[in-house]
Amino acid sequence: MQTKIPDIFEEVEKPDTDPEPVHQVKDFYRACMDVGQFCNKIQKFKIKMSKKERREQLGVKPLSELLSALGGWPIAEAQWSEDRFDVLRTLGFLTRNLATTPLSTVYVYMDRKNSSRSVVTVDQGSLVLPRAMMTQPALYKRQLAAYAEWIVGAAKLLGATADDQQLLAEAHQMVQFETHLAEVNKFFLNKAKIFINLFR
Predict the structure, then answer these.
(1) Residues 6+ apart with CB under 8 A from 117
(2) DSSP state of 184
């Protein structure tokens, strides 16, 4: 492994195919090997910082536009309509573009019983807070209350106009839904994952 890693780091960069983290690793590896390049790396870092500042200037506008395109966020909109929201389209977009799996994770993997086959695997989704907190709400009341407050703060940033009491009540409903979802997902922890054979 130690002899292979330098070879990988010294490979010619492929801007069209290599992801950004690979570029960064290769850049900093070369900077360590050649001190003369260090100043160039600092300059690139400054450019990246300016991009971060640009994101700060944009604020929540990109997120607000994304939520609107996906049907809106009920807690942040006074006139939210269920007709604008398509749950399957939204889940598909989140999985494909944001690598987020709120309800369940679906991926193709080798069949553990027969390595010559592949299977579609359905696994538990991801939650905002650790699963242990969501499945034991009585032990983590303070953390879940802080989570609800965080939801209210996010909703206000995105333009929510309801009073704090109503927003907090809706936030607690969201937290309660997540705790129920975490309980359902215990199925995946306590039992085998669901496998669907691709080739039979």
Answers:
(1) 110, 111, 197, 198, 199
(2) H
Q: Where are the beta strands (DSSP E) in 111-180?
A: 118-124
Architecture in CATH of 62-197: Orthogonal Bundle (1.10)
126-160: pLDDT as tens digits: 888 888 899 899 999 999 999 999 999 999 999 99
CB atoms within 10 A of CB 165: 8
Contacts of 191 (CB under 8 A, 6+ apart): none
CA distances, 87 to each of 60, 73, 83, 175 (Å): 23, 12, 11, 19
pLDDT given for residue 149 in this prediction = 96
Q: How far apart are CA 73 and CA 158, in angstroms?
A: 9
| For the chain, domain boundaries | 4-58, 62-197
* Sequence-ordered list of residues with C-beta below 8 angstroms from that of 132, at least 6 positions apart, any chain: 140
DSSP 20-79: HHHHHHHHHHHHHH-GGGHHHHHHHHHHHHHHHHHHHHHTTHHHHHHHHHTT--GGG-TT
Count of residues making up the chain: 200
